[in-house]
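Hey, sorry to bother you again with one of my protein questions. A protein chain has come my way and I'm curious about its shape. I'm sending you its amino acid sequence along with the backbone structure tokens. I owe you a coffee for this, so here goes:
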Amino acid sequence: MKPAPRSNIATLAALGCALALLSAAAVHYFFSHGYLLWYGDAEAHLNSARRLVDCATSKYGQIGTVWLPLPHFATAPFAAVDAWWRTGIAAAFPSAVCFVAGGLFLFAATRRIFDSTAAAFAAVSLAALNPNLLYLQSTSMTESYFYAEITAVLYCTITGRVTLAALATVAATLTRYEGWFLIPFVTLFFATRKPKSAILYAAIASLGPLYWFGHNWFLTGDPLDFYRGPYSPRAIQRGEPYPGLHNAPLAWLYYRTAVTLCSGPGLALMAIAGTVVALARRAFWPMLLLALPPIFYLWSMYSSGGTPIHVPGLWPDSYYNTRYGLAALPFLALASASLVTAVPNRIRAIVAVLIVIAGTIHWVAYPGPENWITWKESEHNSTGRRVWTTQAADYLRVHYRPGVGVLSSGGDDLFGIYRLAGIPLRETFSVDNGLPWEAAVRRPDLYLTQGWAVAKRGDLVEQAVVRSGRYRLIRTIEEKYEPTIEIYKLTGDLK
């Protein structure tokens, strides 16, 4: 492999610096306004990473069985720093690196596909200036990880780097389940060129899913626990009405709406024309690869019930998983950038600027986070949770004494209480601690010894402390549309 031309290296270095500055500015904005952990999943991802380095029992068991582990592994070293964990900034470091890497891979791939630096700048600008992506890359959400991984797969496939493409796919399969969806298509891509390459790719890329099957079997005895277990999306959604389930037109309507809300109407419209141009330029594989994540969500919405999307303006007029629409952003950016190639070389730079303006003007016309659907979803769905989290944390911060321990209900949203209160997670005892926790809640007379308990009314923890007869209800926190939080303190003698 020949070394990259000096001009290419300088261009990539300058672009990397620009992306890093943009990312840092976004992180500073969202951090200074206290938005980093408004998503319930952001709180949960951060605390899952923290438990890998701060837990009373087996740290390997803290990986869990549903959420894929790579983002948690990447965040764990930063979450080990108490101040970074408590403020939520820990997750921004690896997530921002992925944002920059994704932009560089998209730039390099687009320039290679269309042989146009102007088109490459247009593509990366359309993606990088999207405020929804900028918000999520500032948090512990996983979108920026997958953005880097799929653009890396794109670049490695079009340049024939089989092993690197496989390693990028492994990373994708350990980040989001749509990464699994890539494997058969990329295998076929390499098979049409060199069968031995396809075998090598498939052998390496499959290591991610194979590891996850084995991991689930090791922890639960069921290799498909992530898919059909009690904490799987299917189990959570079971029995609830779900737009798009077994209704292809409705699934398309909801996902298309989410895509438009995430990307902005200008980019979505340009991409329609851009797709025609890209296909005319025979960019079949890049367009197919980047279309696979949106296709995965449409298929999942229609067939399985595991990826519900609710958007404002459509029943039930709420916000839920709107960020899934962001999976189409690389496709839209590449398709729109192809329009640059439809004009003569001498005016391509001007057209690239006009395309970026057309694709981002919506965010200029409607500034402010209330117009960014991912931020709005996090704000809308966290209002009550932030209230009871703060109230419970304020109480425990004053009254809890280190070392006595807290029996905690399941659900990573509750761990926000301990993060805010400054209670190390190794002093908490929850379902994530496995069999010892099960023993404590089922036989509290024998195994329940923690000095405090935080429960959601009606759950196993509340039942256990009431049955023990040794705890007194100290504080009840009630918020409309939210679970009732109960704080108990040990008052009786241990048997």
Summary: The CA atoms of residues 240 and 305 lie 9 Å apart. Confidence is low (pLDDT under 50) at residues 1-6. DSSP finds 24 helices and five strands in the chain.
